[in-house]
Write a structure and sequence with these properties.
The complex is a heterotrimer of chains A (303), B (449) and C (311).
Chain A (H helix, E strand, L loop, with lengths): L1 H31 L6 H21 L7 H23 L9 H23 L20 E4 L2 E4 L1 H22 L1 H11 L1 H6 L4 H23 L9 H16 L4 H21 L4 H15 L14
Antiparallel strand pairs in A: 1-2
Chain B lengths: L1 H18 L11 E7 L6 H20 L17 E7 L4 H13 L5 E4 L3 H14 L3 E3 L6 H5 L5 E3 L5 H14 L5 E5 L4 H17 L4 E6 L9 H9 L4 E4 L3 H11 L9 E4 L18 E3 L12 H14 L6 H25 L9 H8 L7 H8 L3 E4 L2 E7 L4 E3 L2 E9 L2 E10 L1 H4 L7 H6 L7
Parallel strand pairs in B: 1-2, 1-3, 3-4, 4-5, 6-7, 6-8, 8-9, 9-10
Antiparallel strand pairs in B: 10-14, 11-12, 12-13, 14-15
Helix pairs in contact in B: 2-10, 2-11, 3-4, 6-7, 11-13
Chain C lengths: L4 H16 L5 H25 L8 H16 L6 H23 L4 H21 L9 E2 L4 E2 L2 E2 L5 H25 L1 H11 L1 H6 L4 H27 L1 E2 L6 H14 L5 H20 L4 H15 L6 H8 L1
Antiparallel strand pairs in C: 1-4, 2-3
Classes of the chains: A mainly alpha (303), B alpha/beta (449), C mainly alpha (311).
């Protein structure tokens, strides 16, 4: 029983992390039809920026709790700087091209950003630590479930995931810009004809998507050693989540993250042997049963 | 279109033909070393770049004639050394292509490199085919000389079996009552081998131990929450881990706040390079090794002090970690063999560096030894390195043998120190010639066949 | 059999490459050899792209081909190069015939992702298989060709020559296929599947057939690569490898069977020189090259030739 509870807790924590990483990817795909491989680099960028900002904060001798603000600032910075630069500087010239070409454009971008990150931050693993070993990961204390100790930081992950998902769902359904966005998702040409500024919608979407990738990286940074190549490890995982849920679907990303998270936690606890391919196995099974993922819209037939 | 295609093809070929015309035979003025190490990817931070810094520092120092005894001769055998550095990233397939490029296009005299075991396995037969002296400095798999026999390939560091054997001996010496054993290792060849060796060794040395869980997270996974829960839940006396780099640091960051190490003894077989990086995050009493008598385990010597000074100057004040020691061992191994061959050629029986006239002789009237002569001198050679004496005893004289050491950590005044160090002779922790590592462990560590 | 200018050109290029083997410097031969193995895989990618589908998991067949060849040497003790390449082709083709039944229903990104999932499952299985060396893989060597023992000093030239033969033969046959009635369906399917169905052709059967052909080509390329490199490991089915195939296919363009072979050569050359002269930023060099090609040559490098012809 206690092991089952551990699976649940581990699974939910991991799912939250996955959701935070994947939600920006599904948003960008939903609106712009770009499967953004460079999402992994933006995630890494968020993590590296957090390390730099938190290190500066700690070395300034400020109160350790302020490091959380630094994480947030890192995510916002990545969104507001990298997002617009990439969208205006590169992607806007590519709209209308084949989906696969767009994937490869972001793959090229991914390769470039990987080396850029290496040039800026070097290859040494970096982690956040204050003068007395403080880290945003352990500052909040621990909680205990079923005889296992967990840092409260895990609750932050769950909270941020729920808040992000909730806020996006609310914004899409209830706000004017959200409704306009839904119109663009549904039919870009008609929306443009009706006077919606599609270019601006793309710009804003990509910036928000980049910011979400940055949030993922920033929240991950305190728990890991930030290292070159971390983006590559994450991106396929995020793809799997998004594809299982149905590309471009917000509830799909949530459900996909939950399934992958729980399956992986169960594998680790009960069958550590199969952990390595459990995720791809789930992805294959879901796609075989539901060819377009769990949540997918009806497709218009082109004659 | 057809004619244009042919024209393009022919132009291209003409260019390649011209650019590859053999250079006029020249007097040898330098020794070109192809140096292959990770410059990108997860292994670059902890291993690849320290190795590169060490190689550059050592080569500069040797070229300036600043090497300590017995390595005072300038460069290698009096010739200045030139490094061509290549990234090891990209997998074995690409590395084989790059190796061919190094040898055939760059025309290097010797290749030193390779951290990844898969790369070493793939390169060895190609080195043999291209007949190019190749020295592996860091990869650990015993398969290279257990499965093959090579003339042009050398490995100047001991293979990885001794990591597990010595770790088990140290563990059982310090905690003889161990019963419940667990592990967390990366799910790739090195992680699997490391765990299998450890599991086999501890079962052989202490029958009746119980393996309670073996976690095998994906390489580079980063998130270990579930694995840590599973480890805690299985209530082990010992946690064995060969994690390294960012993965090890992430695991320690995530595990440390969860009180897991209060009950369980942690054994880090490759933990040495992280001690200075994770002060306060490594629990006291953690058993750590450095894959040989490297780093903190290296006995004091002029060579060790020279490496430390050289590396510090190059890295901005850091102490060299074990990959830096491995590189020193490889370069000095080549130098020792080359100069032994050169001395033989000059016709002096005096050992290297001892007689001044040999040194002068070699540095001015220079007749470099052939590759065959260097190889003959390298086989079964014994040379000094910053980690101690190296014996090229296994693999028909191509595989180095050395002792190793383990110790326990202690956090003191903001730094992690290693105490209670125990040294293990090579004979106790390495299988004899012709016996595979796993067979040797299962046979109960017999010295003879 | 259709003898047109391109068929003759393929044969000519093959003959020229064969003749060059003994003349070129050895580094150029190994560069060409790798490019030919790669190019054979990319021929298959081209066929898929002409059909309007892209696989992000073709490393699966590349790897299967290589392992089939490797196992023949390792366990079968039959290190015959013709047998090894044959085994690679057959294994890849059989697996594709089964998976193709499922995949033929999928399009776009879903096709790409499902094939990615399959390739990653193979990766997981191989990493778990310690007897095959896990991630370290194992070494492979061809010792005979059609039963005739290869002399030790001629291994490189024999391996190269066979790579030339297999690559150009693949290109020749693919060119024939593309010009045939069934081959021409590919473009029609890409343009509009429904119309193809109305014409009375089965889209699913055509997609399945093209998928199997592309897998066989990848299997041949993998087996050739295994023999050429002398070592195989699960990296061959890891996703960046599959991504690289798509990359080279886009770089090359799909205009002609020459495109994949030439594109593979250009790619290998760029990569090799970037490793050598820019060891710290070779990824960036590749990325920038790729962007430039996609921006200025949307039809791939091949459009350099067709554009001039049109002018």
């Amino acid at each position: 029983m206690s092991q089952f509870i551990a699976v649940l807790v581990d699974g939910i924590v991991y799912s939250s992390w996955l959701f935070i990483i994947a939600v920006g990817l599904t948003l960008i795909y939903g609106v712009m039809k770009i499967l953004n491989i460079a999402h992994g680099s933006l995630y890494a960028l968020g993590a590296f920026t957090s390390v730099t900002l938190c290190t500066m904060w700690f070395s300034g001798g400020h109160d350790a709790m302020g490091s959380y603000a630094m994480l947030l600032l890192a995510a916002v910075l990545v969104g507001l700087v990298a997002g617009p630069v990439i969208e205006r500087g590169l992607l806007q010239f590519m709209y209308g091209k084949d989906e696969v070409v767009l994937v490869l454009v972001t793959y090229a971008l991914f390769l470039i950003l990987e080396d850029l990150i290496k040039l800026v931050w070097g290859v040494d693993p970096l982690f956040i630590t204050g003068p007395n070993g403080e880290s945003p990961y352990s500052l909040l204390g621990n909680f205990e479930v079923a005889g296992l100790t967990y840092p409260n930081y895990n609750l932050v992950l769950v909270g941020v995931a729920a808040a992000t998902g909730g806020a996006l769902a609310w914004a899409l359904a209830k706000t004017r810009s959200g409704k306009l966005l839904l119109a663009v998702i549904h039919d870009r040409e008609i929306s443009a004809a009706l006077g919606i500024n599609v270019g601006r919608t793309y710009f804003v979407t990509f910036t928000i998507g980049a910011m979400l990738a940055g949030v993922g990286g920033a929240l991950t940074a305190p728990t890991v050693s930030v290292v070159t190549g971390m983006g590559a490890e994450v991106i396929v995982l995020a793809f799997a989540v998004v594809v299982i849920g149905g590309l471009g679907s917000l509830p799909g990303a949530a459900l996909g993250a939950l399934i992958v998270g729980l399956v992986r936690a169960a594998a680790v606890h009960y069958f550590p042997e199969v952990e390595l391919f459990s995720i791809y196995f789930v992805m294959a099974v879901v796609l075989i049963l539901r060819p377009k993922g769990l949540f997918s819209g009806a497709e218009v037939r082109k004659i | 279109m057809l004619t244009r295609l042919l024209r393009v093809a022919l132009t291209g070929l003409a260019i390649t033909a011209v650019s590859s015309a053999p250079a006029l035979a020249q007097q040898k003025t330098s020794i070109k070393i192809g140096f292959v190490t990770f410059l990108s990817g997860p292994a670059s931070g902890p291993f690849g770049v320290p190795a590169k810094l060490a190689a550059e520092g050592i080569v500069e120092s040797l070229n300036a004639g600043k090497g300590p005894a017995p390595y005072q001769i300038k460069g290698i055998g009096g010739l200045p050394v030139e490094l061509v550095v290549i990234d090891e990233a990209g997998g074995a397939t690409k590395q084989v292509s790059e190796y061919r490029t190094l040898v055939q296009r760059q025309d290097v005299d010797v290749v030193i490199g390779y951290i990844g075991s898969g790369d070493c396995l793939a390169i060895a037969p190609v080195a043999e085919e291209l007949k190019k002296l190749t020295v592996f400095f860091d990869c650990g798999t015993p398969r290279i000389f257990e499965e093959g026999s090579y003339k042009y390939v050398f490995r100047t560091r001991p293979h990885a079996t001794m990591d597990a054997v010595a770790a088990t001996m140290y563990l059982l010496d310090n905690r003889p009552a161990v019963k419940r054993v667990s592990g967390i290792n990366q799910n790739y060849a090195y992680g699997q081998d490391s765990w299998n060796d450890f599991e086999a060794t501890i079962k052989a040395m202490k029958p009746g131990v119980e393996i309670v869980t073996s976690q095998m997270p994906k390489f580079g996974a980063g998130q270990y929450g579930s694995e840590i829960s599973a480890l805690i839940a299985s209530n082990p006396d010992v946690i064995h881990s060969s994690l390294w780099g960012g993965d090890l640091e992430a695991f320690m960051l995530q595990a440390q706040p969860r009180d897991i190490f209060k009950k369980s003894q942690l054994v880090l077989v490759a933990g040495e390079p992280y001690l200075h990086r994770l002060p306060g995050k490594i629990p006291d009493g953690t058993i750590v090794g450095a894959r040989g008598t490297n780093g903190v385990f290296a006995p004091d010597s002029a060579l060790k002090r020279w490496l430390v000074a050289t590396y510090k100057a190059k890295s901005g004040g850091l102490d060299p970690n074990y990959p830096a020691y491995s590189v020193a061992q490889a370069i000095l191994g080549v130098k020792a063999a080359w100069e032994k061959a050169a001395a033989k050629k000059i016709g002096s029986a005096t050992p290297m560096g001892a007689a001044k006239n040999v040194k002068e002789e070699m540095e001015k009237a220079y007749a470099p030894p052939t590759q065959e002569e260097v190889i003959a001198a390298f086989e079964r050679n014994v040379f000094d390195s910053p980690s101690g004496k190296v014996h090229m005893n296994l693999g028909k004289g191509h595989q180095a043998v050395m002792g190793t050491a383990y110790g326990s950590t202690r956090f003191e005044n903001g730094v992690v120190k290693v105490g209670s160090i125990k040294y293990y002779d090579a004979d106790r922790v390495t299988p004899p010639e012709g016996v595979s590592s796993l067979d040797w462990i299962k046979s109960g560590f017999k010295r003879t066949k | 059999m259709r003898i047109d200018r391109n068929s003759i050109a393929v044969v000519l290029v093959g003959v020229v490459l064969l003749a060059l083997g003994p003349v070129l410097p050895s580094w150029a031969v190994s560069l060409l050899n790798v490019a030919l193995c790669y190019g054979t895989v990319v021929l298959g990618m081209m066929l898929l792209m002409r059909t309007g589908i892209v696989s992000f998991g073709h490393g699966l067949y590349y790897c299967l081909g290589a392992y089939a060849a490797g196992l023949l040497d390792h366990f079968g003790k039959m290190p015959d190069m013709l047998l090894m390449v044959g085994a690679g082709a057959v294994t890849a083709g059989l697996v594709a015939a089964v998976l193709g039944l499922l995949l033929a229903k999928y399009r776009d990104i879903f096709f790409a992702m499902l094939s990615l999932a399959f390739s990653m499952i193979l990766y997981g299985l191989l990493v778990k298989t310690a007897s095959l060396g896990s991630t370290d893989g194992f070494n492979v060597a061809a010792k005979t060709v059609g039963g005739i023992v290869i002399a030790e000093d001629s291994v490189r030239i024999v391996v190269y020559s066979l790579a030339v033969v297999f690559a150009t033969l693949s290109a020749f046959l693919l060119h024939q296929y593309l010009a045939s009635h069934q081959g021409r369906l590919a473009g029609a399917i890409k343009d509009n599947e429904l119309r193809v169905e109305y014409m009375g052709a089965s889209v699913k059967a055509a997609v399945h057939r093209n998928y199997v052909i592309s897998a066989v080509l990848a299997g041949i390329g993998g087996a050739l690569m295994a023999v050429n490199i002398g070592h195989i490991d699960p990296e061959m089915t890891y996703w960046p490898q599959s991504g690289e195939f798509v990359f080279v296919a886009i770089l090359s363009g799909t205009g002609s069977v020459f495109a994949p072979l030439g594109g593979a050569l250009v790619f290998e050359a760029i990569r090799s020189f970037a490793y050598e002269y820019s060891p710290n930023t070779w990824q960036m060099v590749l990325g920038i090259t790729m962007l430039l090609v996609m921006i200025f040559l949307p039809g791939g490098l091949w459009s350099l030739f067709t554009r001039k012809r049109g002018a």
